[in-house]
Amino acid sequence: MKAVRMVDTGKPLELQEIPTPDIGERDILVRVCAAGICHSDAHYRAGRSTMGQMPITLGHEVAGVVEKTGSQVTNVKIGDRVCLHYNITCGDCYSCSTGNEQFCDSVKMLGHHVDGGYAEYIAVPARNAIHLPDEIPFEAGATLMCASATALHALTKSRIKAGETAAVFGVGGLGLSAIQLAKAMGAVEVYAVDIQQDKLELASEYDAIPIDASRVDAVEEIRKLTKGRGVNVSVEMIGLRKTMEQAIDCLGNLGRAVMVGLNQQPISINTYAQVLGKEAEIIGSNDHLLSELPLLVEWARRGILDTSRVVSQVIPLDARKINQRLDDLENFTSDVRVVITP
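The structure assignment produced for this chain is given below.
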């Protein structure tokens, strides 16, 4: 089969011909119909994270059709449309048994530790498969497995409730999902912070209040619009020191700032004025849970979460085009989300 693979850090991905993967008795073979290109993939290619193997097929946002099942698989059958939870876990360790499988002692992430979806086929444990309703295109189903799922987990961690206000920093695939999900979870006002006008216009169409951080100070504007109170919840989706600090600074009393964006730089906090005095919280959000995905897919099926405009471009399984997209992500392109359709 064909696969676009990372052969070394800091180098372009390469198209290779490799064997179609074998499956075990509890596994499934999925024909990949869509694989999302995530900002994390650009980080992997740049060498910012240790990979589980090399060469490796990137791609952790995957949707497709079940082509083959192991002898003990009962939850899906050949021909089923599925999207794939990207964390492969043991199911037995303390973290798995307490519902925190992202911290599994032996967790392996698709496209990071084991081969992912930039390929014609992928093999995964059957329990990683979530049924994808006919109403949801494969391209949207793939992005649900990362951007939308991560946004839902972050908002769940924030404990947002009906009547509260929220600020979303970064209106990419993550941010657009977070805006809609915050509304679905009861937020009365959601402020969308970005510097790209097209993204802000799209956010306003989802009933968010746009804040152009290239023209105004985002924190001052949020405080002005909330009559000085600040927001109950902020979610940082970019991974920049400045926006992380702003996400904390815009909180009101008892506010909760959830950090999602990847950043290796330290941030500066006035511990009393920004945290202790307000009894505010800074919360880390890491990946998402398999148990959260069926609800997410159902919300997408019902249109509560609109996925029709998340994917901005579809490209083939072409190494040059995939590398170009990863280059664009390094430069914070204005595109929302690109999906490969092998």
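Interim note for the steering committee: Residues 148-284 form a domain with the Rossmann fold fold (CATH 3.40.50.720). The radius of gyration is 20 Å.
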